[in-house]
Design a protein that fits this description.
The protein is of the alpha/beta class. It has ten helices and 14 strands. It has helices spanning 30-36, 56-61, 91-100, 118-133, 145-150, 181-189, 200-204, 240-250, 267-278, 290-294; strands spanning 4-7, 10-13, 27-28, 42-46, 68-69, 79-81, 84-87, 108-112, 139-142, 178-179, 193-196, 222-223, 258-261, 284-287.
Length: 309
């Protein structure tokens, strides 16, 4: 049975509904953005935030022409659900965020972050995953981020604010891209590949993030730190050939069922993007609750590979 939500004039569908726009390329380059940023039907989305040392002030001082701004950390992209931070907001809530940015299902959205690290690119991949999990395939990421764009001083930069005019975005939720705790338990039982995209010290259990309640990782998980997936931990993704070599070293297949996780689903979105969109593994998914949720459940097993004390 189809479930719908209505907020004012906006209607959001959890499944079914009209066909969405055709798929866009996962990554676009600077030449593409220069040629298309101000074209009708394209919305360039600047998501710089405190996570990569950016803010709305930086946007106002300079951004890609015609780009609109939405702070990744403060713009409503993530929320606390059942005391777990950084989760996907309720579908009507996040769909309204997108609608208010002047985006509908025919809009080609191109996302960019500061582009100064793999963590920064995680802002773009997490927002990209959000669009995908809401059923929209007409979305891309600017490879290299804003740092890559302004590396050439001749590229035009716009200042001030571009105010979007609200449209209607219809969300068609895709459960297959959003793994739950129960899905992870099932994956463990079925020996599905689990990929921990946190730094290796957290994977090993030497250190842990404040959101983690216990040390270590999900038993059986493989380690592929998100910093491996961009060149020199910068804003440009490695090639498919390079990522395949890294996956081989980590013992991670490049095809087949795979669950990516980290602490709160940020770094994991980098791993998910590398697997699904660069390597083409359409069976890769993301565990939104990640270790923040898993470690808070006393019945969920944890594996600590190294004890420092």
């Amino acid at each position: 049975m189809k479930k719908t939500w209505a907020i004012g004039a906006l209607v959001f569908a959890a499944s079914g509904g009209s066909a969405l726009a055709a798929s866009a390329q996962p990554l676009v380059n600077v030449d593409w953005i220069k040629a298309n940023s101000c074209k009708p039907g394209v919305v360039v989305l600047d998501v710089r935030s405190s996570i990569d040392g950016g803010s709305q002030i930086d946007y106002l001082r300079g951004h890609i022409p015609c780009a609109i701004y939405s702070d990744y950390m403060k713009g409503g992209w993530r929320t606390k659900v059942d005391n777990v931070p950084g989760m996907l907001p309720p579908v009507p809530q996040i769909a309204k965020v997108i609608s208010d940015l002047g985006i509908d299902n025919n809009t080609h959205v191109v996302i960019y972050s500061a582009g100064n690290s793999a963590t920064s690119m995680g802002s773009a991949t997490r927002v990209y995953w959000t669009f995908k999990v809401l059923g929209d395939n007409n979305v891309s990421i600017l490879n290299g981020g804003y740092a890559g764009y302004i590396a050439d001083k001749k590229n035009p930069v716009q200042t001030g604010m571009n105010a979007p005019k609200a449209k209607t975005f219809a969300a068609h939720f895709r459960k297959d891209l959003d793994a739950s705790e129960a899905d992870v338990r099932k994956a463990m039982a079925e020996k599905v590949v689990l990929v921990d995209n946190r730094p290796s010290d957290e994977y090993l259990g030497v250190n842990r993030a404040p959101v983690a309640k216990r040390d270590g990782t999900i038993p059986g998980a493989k380690s592929v730190p998100e910093s491996w997936l961009t060149a020199n931990d910068g804003g440009t993704f490695r090639s498919a050939a390079e990522i395949k070599k890294l996956y081989k070293h980590a013992g991670v297949p490049t095809q087949g069922d795979e669950v990516n996780f980290c602490n709160t689903g940020h770094w994991a979105s980098v791993g998910w993007f590398a697997s699904r969109e660069i390597l083409g593994n359409k069976h890769a998914t993301l565990y939104d609750g990640s270790i923040a949720q898993w470690s808070a459940d006393p019945k969920a097993p944890m594996e600590q590979k190294i004890k420092a004390e």
